Amino acid sequence: MRLEKCWFCSSTVYPGHGIQFVRNDAKIFRFCRSKCHKNFKMKRNPRKVKWTKAYRRLHGKDMTQDSTFEFERKRNRPERYDRNLAENTLKAIKKIDKVRSDRAATHIEKRLKVRKGKERREAQKELEQSIHLVKAPQVLRQDQSLTLPKIKVMVSQPKSEQNQAMEE
Amino acid sequence: MGGKCPSRKVKKRRYSHKTARRSKFLIKGDDAVYEELQKPDGEMKSTLPLDEDLPGMGQYYCLHCDRYFANVTVRDEHFKTKRHRKRVKQMMGPAPHTQLDADLAAGMGAPDNGPKLMSM
């Protein structure tokens, strides 16, 4: 029994699932579900369709280089049956799978961290630059508690002073 | 593409796209064309076999679009079209998606064919 990968989305095609298309030059295309088959018939490029593994790999969304990728392979040679080997392999599969999923999770976490930091910095900048939009200047002058207590920004950054001059 | 629909009762639905759909898979796939283009040329242009079923006896062929033309002028006209130029640009780019790419993207290693039996 061989678990093939879908041509379009690279998911595993289990026996009894999906459909197989054999082109007239004897090339085989396997699809895990009708969604992938239809997308193929529409001549879409899996590298440009966002939900496929090929896209995610190409655009750095998923892990690309890892030592755990070396285990699952298409082995085009017969293996002599060995009970101990089979047992050890079954044990190893679970372990490797866990390692791999953990690494994938950390990869995604790391990737999202970059964006979170960026969002925070942008939010801070927006707050500093457009605090005047929150309250009218008259109100700010009357009630001192509404202004930001940070005065050192004005001193340390000559840029912000210029911006204020522009606005006025 | 798309001929008249044989059983049309509603006036608005004029054309059937059945032929367009049918002919979609009569032409070569992207990967087949790409492979043809990767071959060292020279052998291609000189030896186009005579085929009386094809337009222009199969002598005027566009490799990129997998199309036959009636004569040289039509073919040269085709070379100027936007569709052809788009196709050429696409074929100049990276190789089309293959099953091997799909396997690699799924986290599989390269295929393991074992040691070579005939080393000579």
TrEMBL record, chain A:
One term of GO molecular function: structural constituent of ribosome
SMART domains, alphabetized: TRASH
GO cellular component: nucleolus
Pfam assignment, any one: Ribosomal_L24e
Taxonomic superkingdom: Eukaryota
Localization per Swiss-Prot or TrEMBL: Nucleus
The keyword Nucleus belongs to this UniProt entry's keyword annotation: yes
GO biological process: ribosomal large subunit biogenesis
Domain annotation TRASH: ranges: 6-44
InterPro entries assigned: L24e/L24_sf, Ribosomal_eL24, Ribosomal_eL24-rel_N, Ribosomal_eL24_CS, TRASH_dom
Keywords annotated in UniProt: Nucleus, Ribosome biogenesis
Nucleus is among the record's keywords: yes
Entry-linked SUPFAM superfamilies: Glucocorticoid receptor-like (DNA-binding domain) (SSF57716)
Family annotation (PROSITE patterns): RIBOSOMAL_L24E (PS01073)
Family per similarity comment: Belongs to the eukaryotic ribosomal protein eL24 family.
Protein name in the entry: TRASH domain-containing protein
Automatic annotation (TrEMBL), chain B:
PANTHER family, A to Z: EXPRESSED PROTEIN
Any Gene Ontology biological process: ribosome biogenesis
Record protein name field: C2H2-type domain-containing protein
GO MF, one example: zinc ion binding
Gene3D superfamilies per record: Classic Zinc Finger
Family: Belongs to the ZNF593/BUD20 C2H2-type zinc-finger protein family.
Organism for this UniProt entry: Salix purpurea
Keywords, alphabetical: Cytoplasm, Metal-binding, Nucleus, Ribosome biogenesis, Zinc, Zinc-finger
Pfam families, per the entry: zf-C2H2_jaz
InterPro entries noted in UniProt: Matrin/U1-like-C_Znf_C2H2 (IPR003604), Znf_C2H2_jaz (IPR022755), Znf_C2H2_sf (IPR036236), Znf_C2H2_type (IPR013087)
Domain C2H2-type: 62-84
Region of interest: Disordered: 1-20, 100-120
